[in-house]
Amino acid sequence: MSLPPLRRPAPTRTGFECDPAFVAGQFAAGVAVLVAAIAVASALPRLPWGLVDPLLVLIGSHPVINALIKALTVTVFVTVHVIFLIWLERKFAGWMQARLGPMHVGWKGALQTIADAVKLLMKEDIIPTRADRILFIAAPFLTFMPTLLTFMVLPFSEKWVAYDFPLGILFVLAVTTNISLGTLAAGWGANNKYSLLGGARACAQVLSYEIPMAVAMLSVVTLEGTMSLTEIVKHQQHGWNIIAHAPVMIPAFLIFMVCGLAELNRTPFDLPEAESELVSGFHTEYSGMRFAFFYLGEFAANFFTAGLAVTLFFGGWLGPWLPAPIWFGIKTIAVVTLFMWIKWTVPRLRVDQMMGFCWKFLVPASVVVFCATAVWVMVAGS
Amino acid sequence: MTAMQPAVGASTSSDMTINLGPQHPSTHGVLRLMVALDGEYVKSCRPVVGYLHRGLERMMAARPYRQSVPFTDRLDYCASLNSNLAISQAIERIGGMAVPERAQYLRVMLCEMNRIASHLIFFGTYAADIGATTAFLYAFRERERLLDLLEAYTGARLTCNWIRPGGVASDMPEGYAQAVCAFLDGFLKELDAYDTLLTGNPIFRVRTEGVGIISPEKAIAYGASGPVLRGSGVNIDLRRTEPYDAYPRTQFDVPLRTEGDCLARYLVRVEEMRQSARIIRQCLREMPEGEHWGKQPKVFRPAAGEAYSRTESPRGELSIYLVSDGTANPVRVRVRGPSFVHLSMLPELVRGVKVADMIAILGSLDTVLGEVDR
């Protein structure tokens, strides 16, 4: 008896073999972006700044204009680097999940984020009728502003810091706490039950994890004897904290990283926006640019937390050959990638497990590390 | 307004009634759960079904017996071939048709391939329910390769409509056995990797271990079947206890766990994929030459009477009951689906657990709404 014709030929290639060309392409793309970034950044100091310098000094000496220029620079940087970070995240996720990620807009999808931003800008601005209008409108900015403020004290190099605040760490701790205010406002203001649950979760989570994170940061302060972020980096001239003081700083760094994940609402701590439970949590009702602000804040916070980790533990901008901000960028992107790696690997904790992990493990552990640091300083000092 | 109130549990002012679905990321279809929450705790849950009701049983009863096979594709759309098998067996029983031996092997092979595809959906969506998106995409990659194979044979990826009363629609295409074997080789390797990614993950463990425990007594009382029943330590697999087609001639283990929690049901399904691969290999090796299609009457008018077929679908016992009055159309077609039974356990299982656990429990029951609503 004759066989009916095949609709499609039986697949011969099993497809399990890794495609070297694809992997090489992805890798080359990453390297090319890195090289381009380095080239641009190293060309910057070579530009004839000398010609504009007197003008800059003249304008910059006025305190208000000086502050305005700094504020503008920080804002532009935060907005622009997020475009790159989102692309990186999507590419990285694609790489981990055996798919391509964005490919169509621009080279390897590099302009995808810009296209998305344009789309979000053109979307209808929807405010639910029963929402608390003031809170609903304020929430994205309440979330984004503290993140923006933290960039003020983040040292990209000895000179590249908007405001070298002597109490930098205290400032960071004080400002980042306010992020939970925004998420709570979003959760409450949207008048949506998923949002409310997400907002409540976010608030509980951020406030709880702030404590071990602060204690871990205080360990560094104890070690360095200063709260200024630039001073902390300068003290690491002869060895990064995580290497020079490994016995106490490695545990402190791990606690900091775990708390950082929780502060950023990333898996395994993405409970506030747990997709399978709460649709998208506190920002369920947001669309268009209001949603974009949450996204912007989230990714900017990502970069900031990574930058803070680099500053506290990995010698900030210090490094040979390359200009200081480049070193800072490379290290920070490496930590950001670590965040992404964790995010795309692990499942999500349950709310009681998340709280229990913080209060029953991280808080005691951070206190132990803090005390150990004090002993370490005493021993090393004598 | 009374319809909006949860069915069980006293409602107080601090309760919040929340509707999960019918459009919700974790309900795997158009299931609606009316949940009364007290903070993060579930006080009561009422599943609302019927959004996908198409009257399939009546539609099947309204036409000649053999035309009802395509409707079964739409029952459990994740495992259409297993549903095809259930109706084909019922029709064969009521009409006294014989199935050639080669067709029996082909049927078992197809059913087990579809079982793997179905369990892969479970694996992926369950990982996504727990929050691990990467495992989800890996599972769908494997499933895609399997669906390519099914398409190469049956011409369809999802609604295969290939197992017919009296046999299967056609024999395997040339080179198909090799393609299936090549897939299985790679699949088992990949499955081990996924296992490492998810099963061993401590977060996955704490999310599933001891969550949604179903005691063997409760499982039996509700009429649970398939991996849900075997996850509770009751060793009933219709492929073993009431073997049909080529199953009596194949060697395979029935995975059994006694914990009865979400993890047990998950582990049973993962192990079943390995056993399915084993069965497929045996089928390909031992398949005799011959016809794929038994002798068929031109006009099919079975004598008045009834027939009942029980099959082990990926989700559990899928049975079909047929009543004939001697005419060309059945008087009654009744589908007994596992998903509906398992969904009926949900309100009891989720009372007092947290929202996240409810999602984990719902996912572990692995219901398909096409078969719940029919």
Summarize the topology.
The complex is a heterodimer of chains A (382) and B (374).
Chain A (H helix, E strand, L loop, with lengths): L19 H24 L5 H12 L2 H34 L15 H11 L10 H18 L17 H9 L2 H11 L3 H32 L4 H6 L6 H4 L1 H18 L11 H4 L9 H26 L10 H20 L7 H31 L1
Chain B lengths: L15 E5 L11 E7 L2 E8 L7 H6 L7 H5 L6 H16 L5 H30 L2 H22 L8 E2 L2 E2 L7 H24 L2 H7 L7 H7 L3 H6 L6 H4 L20 H25 L18 E9 L2 E9 L7 E5 L1 H13 L4 H11 L3 H5 L1
Antiparallel strand pairs in B: 1-2, 2-3, 4-5, 6-7, 7-8
Can you describe this structure in just a few lines?
The complex is a heterodimer of chains A (382) and B (374). By secondary structure, chain A is an all-alpha fold.
Global Rg of chain A: 23 Å
Termini gap of chain B? 27 Å
The CATH class of chain B, by name, is: Mainly Alpha
Taken as a percent bin, the fraction of beta residues of chain A is under 5%
- Count of spatially separate domains of chain B: 1
Low-confidence stretches of chain A: 13-17
**Order of adjacent strands in the largest pleated sheet of chain B:** 1-2-3
Give the CATH superfamily of chain B. Answer: Cytochrome-c3 Hydrogenase, chain B
Find the CATH topology of chain B. Cytochrome-c3 Hydrogenase, chain B
Number of strands of chain A: 0
Secondary-structure-derived class of chain A: mainly alpha
Structural notes for this entry:
The complex is a heterodimer of chains A (382) and B (374). Chain A has one domain (60-381). With 382 residues, chain A is mainly alpha-helical. Chain A has helices at 20-43, 49-60, 63-96, 112-122, 133-150, 168-176, 179-189, 193-224, 229-234, 241-244, 246-263, 275-278, 288-313, 324-343, 351-381. With 374 residues, chain B is α+β, with helices and mostly antiparallel strands. Chain B has a single domain, classed as Cytochrome-c3 Hydrogenase, chain B, CATH 1.10.645. Helix content of chain B is 48%, strand content 13%. Chain B contains 14 helices and 8 strands. Chain B has helices at residues 56-61, 69-73, 80-95, 101-130, 133-154, 176-199, 202-208, 216-222, 226-231, 238-241, 262-286, 338-350, 355-365, 369-373; strands spanning 16-20, 32-38, 41-48, 163-164, 167-168, 305-313, 316-324, 332-336. In chain B, strands 1-2-3 form a 3-stranded antiparallel sheet. In chain B, β2 and β3 form a beta hairpin. In chain B, α4 (101-130) packs antiparallel against α5 (133-154), α6 runs antiparallel to α11 and α12 (338-350) runs antiparallel to α13 (355-365). The relative contact order of chain B is 0.19. The interface between A and B is large, with 42 and 49 residues.
